[in-house]
């Protein structure tokens, strides 16, 4: 299965392959796909967004509502993780290796993460109450599990859909028919600052 994060709690008679691309047809990684149908929401689970090389990993995390996410720091510098998003507002004050208690994400929505010390650091936690949600890999594909018969509402999100990062594409999937979703990316791509000499040495050391 190519999606990097998948969860479900329903059984049925058909599955669907959903492919997400940009307007030129290039596949999109880190697109979150939700499929909505009658059934219980996916169970909560534990997640992790760690900091290394002055960046968050993964860039996009998808978790069911009610999940706890931890934020370990694997850098040698302190970080101050925060979010002002409506779905979750929180702050983890400056810390190094003393990982704070996991944070509860109990409201569906897109949570934008930042660091008060390193402005270029950004990541996203997509909290979902859908029975199924998945994240595309480099091939832009999510493979659903078996689904109930009939048409099902589909929502797709990507960090570059809109500068507000709260916009979703909406459509539907029918049975086991493949679905190709083409997104118009309107968000401005942030510039990547040059690595400091310390960061360059860190990346070189981790390549070996």
Short description:
The chain contains 1 helix and 18 strands. The chain is mainly beta.
Walkthrough of the structure:
This protein is mostly beta strands. It has one helix and 18 strands. The protein has one helix at 197-206; strands spanning 5-7, 17-22, 32-36, 46-48, 50-51, 56-57, 60-64, 67-70, 79-85, 88-95, 103-105, 109-115, 122-128, 132-135, 141-143, 151-157, 169-174, 179-183. The protein has a five-stranded antiparallel sheet with strand order 1-14-3-16-17, with no helix packed on it. It has a five-stranded mixed sheet with strand order 7-13-12-9-10, with no helix packed on it. Strands 15-2-18 form a three-stranded mixed sheet, with no helix packed on it. The longest helix is centred in the C-terminal third of the chain and has 10 residues, at 197-206. The protein is globular and about 50 Å long.
The number of distinct helices, counting runs of at least 4 residues, comes to 1
User: In percent terms, what proportion of residues is strand?
Assistant: 35-45%
Helicity, as a percent range: under 10%
Category from helices, strands and their pairing: mainly beta
Return Rg in Å: 18 Å
Task: Please tell me the overall pLDDT.
Answer: 87
Q: What is the count of β-strands? A: 18
Tell me the span between the first and last alpha carbons: 29 Å
Identify the overall geometry: globular
Order of helices and strands: EEEEEEEEEEEEEEEEEEH
Instruction: Point out poorly predicted stretches.
Output: 1-12
Side-by-side strand order of the widest sheet = 1-14-3-16-17
